Amino acid sequence: MTNRERLNTIGACHDAVEWAGKYKTPKAAWKACQRGDWMLWLIGKTSGPPDSDSRRKLVLVAAQCAELALPFARDEETRAICESTIQTCYAYAAGEAELTDVRSAADAAYAATYAADDAAYAAAYAAYAAAYAAADAAYAATYAADDAAYARSKILAACADIVRDNYPESPL
Questions:
Q1: What are the Cα distances from residue 69, in Å, to 17, 34, 54, 66?
Q2: Could you report the per-residue pLDDT of 102-141, keeping only the tens digit for each?
Q3: How many domains, in total, are found in the chain?
Q4: How far is CA 147 from the centre of its chain?
Q5: How much is the pTM?
Q6: What CA–CA distance (Å, rounded) separates 40 from 169?
Q7: Mind listing the pLDDT tens digit for each residue in 21-31?
Q8: What domain range is 97 assigned to?
């Protein structure tokens, strides 16, 4: 089965399917990938049921990625809420918080920054995505500022490195 076929089978986005199709093996694509959000999504699709140890690890890695977007928070209040959400994710990953705590923190971060634009929204969404990695892999993506393509690509590449440090092999 080709990379494209594997990714289409699990519902990957068109851009990821097309990009991965350039590589002969999942291992080669994993090694070359600079999109941490795609990698987290893929791990989420293959990492087991909510509240499992494998999901806890995924939340930990997604929280590490979400921290990279914190400098883009528009104000201190937004940053504090996002930091709190990320800390709750770390507590969950360590077995010191419940999934309901993570979801509540993520909802609070999302609500507090819903009206914000640009980087503040991106930082909040990263924290929100980290939290929801525990239950819904489709949200396991970490985004940087939409209006700063260069910063976004740098953050996604840094996220990809974090993901590879924790998941050296492709889950496909």
A1: 26, 16, 24, 6
A2: 888 888 777 766 545 444 445 555 555 665 554 443 333 3
A3: 1
A4: 19
A5: 0.79
A6: 13
A7: 999 999 999 99
A8: 33-166
